[in-house]
Amino acid sequence: MNMLYGTRRETYRQIFLDCWRRYREGLLLEGLEERIVSVILEHPEYQALLENDEKALTVEFFPQAGETNPFAHMSLHVALLELLASGDPPGILQEYRKLQARLDAHAADHVFLECLGEMLWQAQREGRAPHIQELLPCVRRLAGDRHGKNWEDVGDGA
What we know:
By secondary structure, the protein is mostly helical. The protein has nine helices and no strands. The protein has helices spanning 2-5, 9-24, 32-41, 47-50, 53-58, 70-86, 92-100, 105-126, 135-147. The two termini are 31 Å apart.
C-alpha cells in the first residue's frame, strides 16, 4: 500500500485519516477505503488519534518503549484483508478458516499479522521484496506453537 501512495509517512497516514473522515461524514466508500474503515472500526482505541489530523501526522511511536504504531498495525490488517480477497498465496483462505475455527476472528488475524510483520521485516532487512510464500508456513508454525502441537495435527475444524 505504501508503494501505491509514496513513501512519505504523512502521505501514508493521510490515507487513513481521509478514509475515517469520509466514513464519519457518511460519504461513499469504495474498495480499499471500505477495508481501511472496517479495520479502524475494529480498533476503537485508535479512533481518537484519527480524529486529530495534526497529531496523527506528527506523532512518533517507539517500539523499544513498548509502543505500537497504530498505522503500521492497521496496515497489516488491511494487507491481510487484501490477501484474503485475492486468495494469494494459494491456500490462505483455508488456513485462515482453519485458524478461525480455533480462535476468534481478531485473534486469528493477529497470528497472520505476526507472520506478515516478520515477512516484511525480513524483506526490508535483506533489501528485497517480501516472499509471500513464507506466510503460510509461518502461520502454521505459530498456530501449532499456540496449540502446543503440530498444526497438521489440529485438523480442519471448519
